[in-house]
Amino acid sequence: MFRHTKLLQCEAKPERPDAVYARKLQELIGGAYGEMTVTMQYLFQGWNCRIEGKYKDLIMDTATEEIGHVEMLATMVARLLDGAPAEQAAAAAKDPVMAAVLGGMDPQQAIVAGGGAMPNNSQGVPWNGGYIVASGNLLADFRANVAAEAQGRLQTARLYNMTDDPGVKEMLRFNLARDTVHQKQWLAAIEELISDGLEQPIVPDALFDEEDQTHNHTIWHLSDGTDGDKGGWVGDGTDLEYLHDPEPLGGPATAPRPNPALYATYSPTMDAVGTVKGKAKKLKKKAT
Amino acid sequence: MFRHTKLLQCEAKPERPDAVYARKLQELIGGAYGEMTVTMQYLFQGWNCRIEGKYKDLIMDTATEEIGHVEMLATMVARLLDGAPAEQAAAAAKDPVMAAVLGGMDPQQAIVAGGGAMPNNSQGVPWNGGYIVASGNLLADFRANVAAEAQGRLQTARLYNMTDDPGVKEMLRFNLARDTVHQKQWLAAIEELISDGLEQPIVPDALFDEEDQTHNHTIWHLSDGTDGDKGGWVGDGTDLEYLHDPEPLGGPATAPRPNPALYATYSPTMDAVGTVKGKAKKLKKKAT
Amino acid sequence: MFRHTKLLQCEAKPERPDAVYARKLQELIGGAYGEMTVTMQYLFQGWNCRIEGKYKDLIMDTATEEIGHVEMLATMVARLLDGAPAEQAAAAAKDPVMAAVLGGMDPQQAIVAGGGAMPNNSQGVPWNGGYIVASGNLLADFRANVAAEAQGRLQTARLYNMTDDPGVKEMLRFNLARDTVHQKQWLAAIEELISDGLEQPIVPDALFDEEDQTHNHTIWHLSDGTDGDKGGWVGDGTDLEYLHDPEPLGGPATAPRPNPALYATYSPTMDAVGTVKGKAKKLKKKAT
Amino acid sequence: MFRHTKLLQCEAKPERPDAVYARKLQELIGGAYGEMTVTMQYLFQGWNCRIEGKYKDLIMDTATEEIGHVEMLATMVARLLDGAPAEQAAAAAKDPVMAAVLGGMDPQQAIVAGGGAMPNNSQGVPWNGGYIVASGNLLADFRANVAAEAQGRLQTARLYNMTDDPGVKEMLRFNLARDTVHQKQWLAAIEELISDGLEQPIVPDALFDEEDQTHNHTIWHLSDGTDGDKGGWVGDGTDLEYLHDPEPLGGPATAPRPNPALYATYSPTMDAVGTVKGKAKKLKKKAT
Amino acid sequence: MFRHTKLLQCEAKPERPDAVYARKLQELIGGAYGEMTVTMQYLFQGWNCRIEGKYKDLIMDTATEEIGHVEMLATMVARLLDGAPAEQAAAAAKDPVMAAVLGGMDPQQAIVAGGGAMPNNSQGVPWNGGYIVASGNLLADFRANVAAEAQGRLQTARLYNMTDDPGVKEMLRFNLARDTVHQKQWLAAIEELISDGLEQPIVPDALFDEEDQTHNHTIWHLSDGTDGDKGGWVGDGTDLEYLHDPEPLGGPATAPRPNPALYATYSPTMDAVGTVKGKAKKLKKKAT
Amino acid sequence: MFRHTKLLQCEAKPERPDAVYARKLQELIGGAYGEMTVTMQYLFQGWNCRIEGKYKDLIMDTATEEIGHVEMLATMVARLLDGAPAEQAAAAAKDPVMAAVLGGMDPQQAIVAGGGAMPNNSQGVPWNGGYIVASGNLLADFRANVAAEAQGRLQTARLYNMTDDPGVKEMLRFNLARDTVHQKQWLAAIEELISDGLEQPIVPDALFDEEDQTHNHTIWHLSDGTDGDKGGWVGDGTDLEYLHDPEPLGGPATAPRPNPALYATYSPTMDAVGTVKGKAKKLKKKAT
User: Fold this and answer.
1) Where along the chain is Mn(2+) 1 bound (chains A, B, C, D, E, F) (predicted)?
2) Where in chain F is CATH 3.30.1530?
3) Do residues A26 and A117 make contact, with C-beta atoms less than 8 angstroms apart?
4) Which residue in D18, F160, F23 sits closest to C262, CA to CA?
């Protein structure tokens, strides 16, 4: 169960409205690596965590913090939109600066939300549950968490460079810091899982005996770049090797013969592997 | 530019059809961590890679391999569907085993694809571009790659347990092996990026001076679990600490006063912070 | 900012696992009227509420409760999946009851979530932000809230009839009760908005003078049912009337002449309203 | 079965083209509360209505009207795009007004539709069936209808303020009027359902005896606003009360122990409630 | 503007309910090639048609018919669901036939629609506007129409084989017939466009002089199949030829150097084409 | 299995960056008829093709080429974005040309992709698998291919007119040529299928005897245009006729009586066809 205080985790006060920037910030709310994603990703991971204790508690601490980040960004967007042009007359359309602002705005922030944030990314695509992962395997999921926090801090840094509003930059400095913490904690938690003997670096920690033993250490050279074998991933001290002239292991990619009840194209003169021998002669009722 | 051979990277021959399993395999084709995802993720990363040489070449080698994995799975699905019930009479519906098979099948594999694979996940949701990431920052992206290969191997392992068809297991053993290789190579490539001095563990490698220096090393205790500070992520030898009684840093989350042209609810008796003082007395034209 | 306790708002303990029902419950998690929807709808409404005080506080109370409802349902789903068939051998597939269970299960709950809930509806479609509304107009939004709670209670009642597990029914009885409360409170809040003079029943409370005065009180008879005028919505004491033989008010629905740079089909012999006069004679370069 | 006349329900003639506004109007065509939504919502409600007579007839009258509203808006959009810049040379890009127009246009209206409307919202997101509701319960659905018409009139009013084209405003005045009628009729139909004894205000009209009797009248104070109990929804004459210090009723939100075949993280030293006792000692095959 | 009669274009009465088949029929309602698609595709094509007369009139005749096809199918689905199991007790779950039916049903038809059709495909994915095309070029669009009617008839034929209910087959026989007519009419309309001199077979009928003259008649041999040149598409009497050993025409696919403000991975030792020369030596502030 | 060369099929070098145009080109990458669509459509058609030989080989040749077209466009987009404004200061926002560029850019190309292409259309909507078709019936699919290539060439031609950059136009001239070839080859392959006796013009080539013989040759006049019978599709020498006064063939579109367990609105006074006789008198427990 959750409780809420109206106080923001960190202040979210722009110095002045900026409707064009308000659209860009939507990426941090409802983008694939925005705050809605980490909120929902951590909540589902925590609820689905099958080990009680330090891992689950860390997940739930972080999940709960992230709901508050959506709140900070939604508040910031509403304030950036204060006084944004809601009335557009022909005259305004001829003022190039105003017209440019209108062109760069998110139309739904005005028309749909009445001057507030949307649960969308910066292009207006609604956030969706397909962005998150909660697999029940903590190592697999912590890797996804590190990846999400890395993309999140990267996007925050890019957005930090796209404004010079001191209030916005102040909030983003906080967000950058939190993304730093969260990257560190998930990296440390991955080490902890391994050090606790709960997982090993390759996920899942199983079926190594059963997996193909010939092809579980080769990198296949399938593009013509000449440097794929120049990295530290192959060579002495590694357990991977570079396969310079790989050849297909399987036979041709054929599909089974057609099922008449499904009306795939077929021929009575097809042989067993589906090759048509001579011209089809079958008689059919003509559609007339 | 690409070239294709009809030979499969690895054989994909089930011993017998299994229409219910054919639906489950769709997760590895068009799911969030299926082969369409890694194909497109690596292709876009490679095309957008701004450093020539070993990293880009490794990405393109792997991307090219993954297209062939979609091919293997699509071929396997078509073969698993061979002879799948395309005609359903009342009699069949009364045979419980047949009825169960019909109930567990992917209806679109028959109705839409004529007995073949769909570009969908196991629930029939079409694959979409929102699943992939290609940010231009190699460390951020390689982390996403490790995460994707971990989820992919995990799902493959689960599916491996859901069949006892020797032909299917044979192919999945190959897939497990490739997922092992790819996890290893991306982990190694992350080390290489750091060792080459191109990136550091926190992404992006920038703005550390500017980020909030008070809150870039604290884990906030916001859920009531008592073990969030028991992990190796805090304490001696770490640069994170656990904040047991965090308090909000910001003021109330208020939205600006309403814009009349947008018809948000407002009151002429609102004070400056939006609190309504006494009952509104405004007269309005009634809708009649 | 939010805080979390690990205790559930209400107990969520099924008496026994039921993998088929676990799929159905997904509708209450990630369906259009599931708990993710009311959570996000109320959160965005609260953050975007431009009047401080009782309305905003009620919204945030309710929003915070709803996050805990997602938690209850996700926990219930994980427990209903306990021991759900994760391994499927040929033998199992021939046991009709087991096969039916396998057919009726949500394949992603096993393959993707490892035996837990997904952020999806009962058909596996991911929840998305397009389901919610937060317009800034409280009356418009409270109506959407009443509608959402009504659909939610209706779906809960249907699901209540689809199980006889005492533990599941116990939790659903709580959910039914909360949906009753929330319907009542939003209905009362609508009355309060009107009684406070902040809104009037027709939303938005504006532009009545400007709207078309001829067509703002007529119901158009456009289907051939004969009872559309038998309801209390027309007749004495109402301000609506039934228009039995409505005629179109506008001219033909024509599109402008084609723009050559956009290659719409056009003819040099078209007249001003786009009618082709005689056969086109224009000479074109043939594609060869 | 349907029939069509080419005459528009109401004239849709702008005085001059306005490509930027044509993008905004897409919200009324393919947005969540646009005309495609009410068209499909009412059609499915009517087809699924299980009582013949006045309710069904009213639904089908309105559904049929709404198809014509999509037509009016699509026609208006095509006309607003007449002569919209289809050729963009370097010179044009340096004219700020032209550049702003180009920036504010919907690129698909030109590239995909050749100067016409798209079945999308103002951000280019395609309309989808997840927007509509047709539950079979008329009261639940009429509430959704009132909500949809309220959001629709609100968006129309906002768009009315964003243009000064007399022809556009003329059409929008008609649309405002129809939204007024439709709000009134659905509100009246709700009253009628109750007065006819078919439904009661809480939906569905069932299971009140079975729902939790302790928690079906309390509003839980879970956010720290102090005014949640100041509204008319609690206090004398209401059947709701405000619970100032609510406590969770359930136990901890735990997930069942992991299923080995699904490779969730687990430890052989876990106790019955999933707490890990001491360091895991299990031996595993190392991935090499 | 549209008008509606409650009479169906063709009878839609199943002989008996069949809840499993009701799910399959959803493909014809809300699938990519279902009736919602052709309805909306033809409506938008008609509204956006820039030539008055026979083409537009044919489009609008057909569009109007298709709305009625959605109606027939939605009615059929509701009837197929009559008495479908809405209550599921433990006992029922142990009856394999009943369990199989429950497993094969569309859960939303019961939980969300109360025993009616959904605006979804057979997998529960909502219909969306991305399925349709209305480009303003009649030949391009009529081709899409022929393609849609072909896929539609194919799916109808497959579904025809999956039932033996005389009432369902009766309706599908009508649908098959209409799909035959519509294929024929769009094929004829394509001939008419060409014969009227309005379009030529290659769409759009323009830019042939400007397109690359070397590569507008060659089929590139990029897969290793040996029969790509055995078809009538190349050889005497055709204007295409088969290029057996095609080579790339462009240079390497490189991306520009990174923009420091966007934090792509880069190295100060990169040369002009992005190759890193030696180990990067740049000093960075460490994240601590 | 696939192999890759880093050389592009055709050069993709713009003369100068153009961030606004880079957004428009996204339509050719991730739009419904962009290169991702034809890539995936042809790959799935080829993998699912059940006849070996010339048809399958042609499909795989073309599929393999299309992957390289995505590559060309992604490379072009990255180059068009070179130096695109990544930092936006207040000053820049007041330069109208710069502001217009910022307004017209795709925000995700900078924030998410770091100056590269996205797997999205020009409005930012992610590509999805619902765009493609691979039915197993070659004629149905080749028609979809002709349609896709026609829409693709049409969009390419429109975009060709929206730039005057010689490098961009050079690449588009190649794309126009390839779209010409592909339209021709699919048209020829359709002829070949018919000439080989594998298919007939109406798809699928089956059930003509069973389809409704009365309604498989009539065009229904359901819109009031007067020219629907003026085309060559009806009259002498055709097998279609125009039905001027079509009447519905079916009875009323009624839904079955409500199922009490699903809580649809119903009345105990309903007669057998669902008409309510007199006022309902049922007593219900009031929700209190």
Assistant:
1) 35, 69, 149, 182
2) 208-277
3) yes
4) F160
Give the mean pLDDT of chain C. 92
Do C263 and F287 make contact, defined as CB atoms within 8 angstroms? Answer: no
C149 assigned to a ligand binding site: yes
pLDDT value for C93: 58
pLDDT band at E41 (very low <50, low <70, confident <90, very high): very high
Question: What is the fold, at CATH topology level, of the domain defined by E19-195?
Answer: Ferritin (1.20.1260)
Across the interface, whether the CB atoms of F97 and D102 are under 8 A apart is answered no
What's the pLDDT tens digit per position in D178-217? Answer: 999 999 999 999 999 999 999 999 999 999 999 999 999 9
Cβ within 8 Å of residue C236, ≥6 positions away: none
For chain B, residues classed under CATH 1.20.1260.10 are 19-195
pLDDT given for residue D100 in this prediction: 76
Query: The pTM is what?
Result: 0.95
> Which CATH topology does F208-277 take?
manganese catalase, domain 2, chain A (3.30.1530)
Does C57 carry a binding-site annotation? yes
Question: What is residue B245's predicted lDDT score, i.e. its pLDDT?
Answer: 96
* Shortest distance, CA A15 to any CA of chain F (angstroms): 12
For testing contact with chain B, the best of E123, E158, E273, E276 (most B CBs within 10 A):
E123
C-alpha–C-alpha distance, residues D157 and C206, integer Å = 8
Indicate the CATH number of C209-276 among 2.60.120, 2.60.40, 1.10.10, 3.30.1530. Answer: 3.30.1530
CATH for A208-278 is 3.30.1530
Q: Report ipTM for this prediction.
A: 0.94
Q: What is the rounded distance in angstroms from the CA atom of residue D144 to the CA atom of residue F41? A: 39
Dihedral angle computed from the Cα positions of residues E186, E191, E196 and E197, in that order, rounded to the nearest 10 degrees: 120
Q: What is the rounded distance in angstroms from the CA atom of residue D190 to the CA atom of residue C233?
A: 10
Mapping DSSP to helix (H, G, I), strand (E, B) and coil, where does residue C62 land? helix
The domain defined by D207-274 carries CATH number 3.40.50: no
Residues in chain C with CB shorter than 8 Å from the CB of D144 are: 147, 150-151
Distance from the Cα of D99 to chain B's closest Cα (Å) equals 27
At residue D90, the pLDDT reads 54
User: What are the DSSP calls for chain A, one per residue?
Assistant: -EEE-SB-SS----SS--HHHHHHHHHHHHSTTSHHHHHHHHHHHHHT--SBSHHHHHHHHHHHHHHHHHHHHHHHHHHHTTT------HHHHHSHHHHHHHHHS-HHHHHTTSSS--SB-TTSPBPBGGG----S-HHHHHHHHHHHHHHHHHHHHHHHTT---HHHHHHHHHHHHHHHHHHHHHHHHHHHHHHTTS--SSSSS--TTTS-SSSSSEEE--B--S-TTSSTTSSTT-S-EEESS----S-B-PPPPPPGGGT----TTB-TTSBB-S------PPP-
Regarding beta strands B2-4 and F2-4, do their DSSP bridges make them parallel or antiparallel, or are they unpaired? Answer: antiparallel
Q: Which two tokens stand for residue B187?
A: 């982990």
Tens of each residue's pLDDT in chain F, 288 residues? 999 999 999 999 999 999 999 999 999 999 999 999 999 999 999 999 999 999 999 999 999 999 999 999 999 999 999 988 777 655 565 677 777 777 889 999 999 999 999 999 999 999 999 999 999 999 999 999 999 999 999 999 999 999 999 999 999 999 999 999 999 999 999 999 999 999 999 999 999 999 999 999 999 999 999 999 999 999 888 999 999 999 999 999 999 988 889 999 987 777 766 777 665 444 444 444
The pLDDT score that the predictor gives to residue A288 is 43
| A neighbours by CB contacts (3+ pairs under 8 Å) | B, C, D, E, F
Residue pLDDT, tens place only, D223-241: 999 999 999 999 888 999 9
